[in-house]
Specification:
Layout lengths: L3 E5 L20 E2 L2 E2 H11 L4 E6 L4 H7 L2 H11 L2 H16 E5 L6 H6 L9 E5 L3 E4 L3 H12 L2 E7 L9 E8 L4 E9 L10 E10 L2 H7 L10 H10 L4 E5 L3 E4 L3 H12 L2
Parallel strand pairs: 1-4, 1-6, 4-5, 8-12
Antiparallel strand pairs: 2-3, 6-11, 7-13, 8-11, 9-10, 10-12
């Protein structure tokens, strides 16, 4: 069973400026609650017991959000407001799940994952990228089912318009295993329409093997001087480690840009 999840949160959120000049993007409200809470709900509903947040010193407000006990206690003592009491109880539930580690230099998602090495106990763990929100269906839960069925690593996949493949990491698929699952041969980052091996894009949900830490430790920085998680994944695939592309059933929302954040908030308000 998958019991641990990691969520990289150290990014600066430049695509959401000016909102993120003073505020962590993951705490921006979406229909009355911070975006990060939707991710935590997805984890809890999937049976995850521990979530590791990778933050930077500049994002300490995320930790403060979950450790505001004195503030809540003072307000509740004065007002006895049932809504506030309910919110505080919810925060306490989240707080029990969360552990914090730090990534103070922006060295990529691979480096962020590597920071969690000493905390990961089992052979596989879940990683969720908070810019990618999936509503209506629980993507992580269905990926865990695929993992249990095929005993392999799993990456979320979504069909995209062929005209837009250059915006995505695109799967090179080996064979179809069933209606929603495909064996992965590799991933091509932002290919041209002509060179795209498929129209199935990588989305920010991964079930990764613990052995990926050794690959990340030995990886040299790639484009932009960063450690890329996709390079470590490709290295494992080349060594015949099984990775599956899982076509999830939910509605994908891109919350990582200003336009995407506005559209996502409007979409969630309709639920």
């Amino acid at each position: 069973m998958i019991k641990q999840a990691i969520i990289p949160l150290a990014g600066l959120g430049t695509r959401l400026l000016p909102l993120t000049s003073v505020f962590a993007k993951e705490l921006l409200p979406m229909n009355g609650k911070p975006g990060i809470e939707y991710i935590l709900d997805e984890c809890a509903e999937s049976g995850i017991k521990e979530v590791i947040f990778i933050i930077s010193e500049k994002k300490r407000m995320i930790k403060k959000y979950f450790y505001s006990d004195n503030f809540y206690k003072k307000i509740i003592k004065k007002k006895k407001d049932t809504r506030i009491i309910k919110e505080y109880k919810k925060i306490l539930r989240y707080k029990k799940m969360i552990k914090f580690v730090y990534q103070n230099k922006p060295l990529g998602t691979g480096d962020a994952v590597l920071k969690t090495k000493k905390y990961i106990k089992d052979k596989f763990f879940l990683m969720l990228l908070p810019d990618d929100l999936i509503i209506k269906k629980n993507c992580s839960k269905s990926m865990i089912r695929a993992h249990n069925k095929y005993k392999s690593s799993v990456m979320a996949s979504m069909n995209v318009n062929k005209k837009t493949v250059s915006r995505w990491g695109i799967f090179n698929l080996n064979k179809k295993l069933d209606k929603n699952n495909y064996l992965i041969k590799g991933v091509t980052e932002k290919p041209s329409i002509k060179d795209a091996p498929s129209n199935k894009a990588v989305i920010g949900r991964y079930i990764l093997p613990k052995i990926i830490f050794q690959k990340l430790k030995n990886l040299k920085p790639g484009k932009g001087g960063e450690i890329h998680i996709t390079d470590a994944i490709q290295s494992l695939i080349d060594e015949n480690q099984k990775f599956i592309a899982h076509n999830f059933q939910g509605r994908y929302l891109d919350c990582g840009s200003l336009d995407g954040y506005i559209k996502s908030t409007l979409e969630i308000s309709k639920l």
